[in-house]
């Protein structure tokens, strides 16, 4: 297959290089178009108020692979690769991320958003990430992803879609299997740490401590990954609360001048 690789960690991040190596080893043709610098947590942002630039790069680990560092968001990278950089892939892969894309963190994730962008332009897309907040066991996770890819592609036989795949933080020999799970709700501290800057302004720095904890009977993606399972979650760009459409219609719909 022809695969476009992107991420939100940057074009030269360990995760995207290991994923590229694993996919090339499996016989796939790849191109990388990824942010020039870390763009984690930018969600689905697009750069509209300034020009974008795509600089050709050489990654010594990937001789012969076209690599572009884009000074924009992950979603910019996908659109630029398909629209201007001359690549028409069979699949878009976003990752491997070195932080998990679990639960409601998917809302913030640039990695997830790049894959959703691909889905929105009718390309099968997969976001991949490894739990653990580090690059330990990244090669094993990337190789497992490449091995799983033929099976994952069966999901797209009925048409374009988007999958999020999260790998446990342990060695591959510790993987317990594969689970399909929904998203956990994750809550973080609202209060920012405050410091005074030399000019007298107050600076606010986000805290990373998570307040929510998975119960033992939890069936969400976060619990399954922490229990050692590879988790596959189908996602979509449609964020409409369809379960409450009827309630909203009864409250608000009318046929009368406003």
Strand content: 15-25%
Distance between the termini: 54 Å
CATH top level is Alpha Beta
H/E topology pattern: EHEEEHEHEHEEEEHEH
Largest sheet: 9 strands, mixed
Q: Name the CATH superfamily classification.
A: Survival protein SurE-like phosphatase/nucleotidase
Widest sheet: strand order? 3-4-2-1-5-6-7-11-8
Structural class comes to: alpha/beta
Per the CATH scheme, the topology name is Stationary-phase Survival Protein Sure Homolog, Chain: A
Number of strands: 11
- Helical fraction equals 10-25%
Total separate domains: 1
Q: What sort of overall outline do the alpha carbons produce when their principal axes are compared?
A: globular
**Architecture (CATH level 2) name:** 3-Layer(aba) Sandwich
Number of helices: 6
Pick out the low-confidence regions. Answer: none
For the CA atoms, what is the radius of gyration? 20 Å
Mean pLDDT: 95
Describe this structure in words.
The chain has 258 residues and is α/β, with parallel strands linked by helices. The chain has one domain (2-185, 215-252): Survival protein SurE-like phosphatase/nucleotidase (Stationary-phase Survival Protein Sure Homolog, Chain: A, 3-Layer(aba) Sandwich). 24% of the residues lie in helices and 23% in strands. The protein has 6 helices and 11 strands. The chain has helices at residues 14-25, 74-83, 110-120, 138-153, 221-226, 245-252; strands at residues 2-6, 29-35, 54-57, 66-70, 91-97, 125-130, 162-167, 177-180, 193-196, 202-205, 229-235. It has a 9-stranded mixed sheet, with helices on both faces. A two-stranded antiparallel ribbon has the order 9-10. Strand 3 (54-57) and strand 4 (66-70) form a beta hairpin. Helix 1 packs across helix 4 (138-153) and helix 2 runs parallel beside helix 3. The longest helix has 16 residues, at 138-153. The mean pLDDT is 95.
């Amino acid at each position: 297959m022809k695969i476009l690789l992107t991420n939100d960690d940057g074009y030269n991040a360990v995760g995207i290089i290991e994923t590229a190596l694993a996919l090339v080893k499996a016989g796939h043709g790849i191109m990388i178009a990824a942010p020039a610098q870390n763009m984690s947590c930018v969600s689905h942002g697009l750069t509209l108020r300034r020009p974008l630039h795509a600089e050709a790069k050489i990654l010594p680990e990937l001789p012969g692979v076209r690599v572009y560092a884009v000074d924009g968001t992950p979603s910019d990278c996908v659109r630029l690769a398909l629209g201007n950089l001359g690549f028409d892939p069979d699949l878009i892969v976003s990752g491997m991320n070195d932080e998990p894309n679990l639960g409601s963190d998917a809302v913030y994730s640039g990695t997830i958003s790049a894959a959703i962008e691909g889905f929105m332009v009718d390309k099968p897309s997969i976001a991949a990430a490894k739990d653990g907040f580090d690059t330990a066991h990244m090669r094993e996770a990337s190789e497992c992803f490449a091995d799983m890819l033929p099976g994952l592609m069966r999901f797209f036989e009925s048409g374009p879609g988007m999958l999020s795949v999260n790998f446990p933080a342990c060695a591959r020999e510790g993987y317990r299997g594969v689970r399909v799970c929904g998203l956990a709700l994750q809550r973080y501290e609202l209060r920012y740490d405050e410091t005074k800057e030399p000019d007298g302004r107050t600076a606010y720095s986000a805290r990373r401590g998570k307040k929510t904890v998975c119960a033992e009977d939890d069936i969400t993606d976060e619990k399954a990954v922490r229990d050692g399972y590879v988790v596959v979650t189908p996602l979509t760009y449609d964020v409409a609360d369809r379960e409450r459409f009827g309630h909203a219609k009864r409250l608000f719909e009318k046929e009368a001048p406003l």
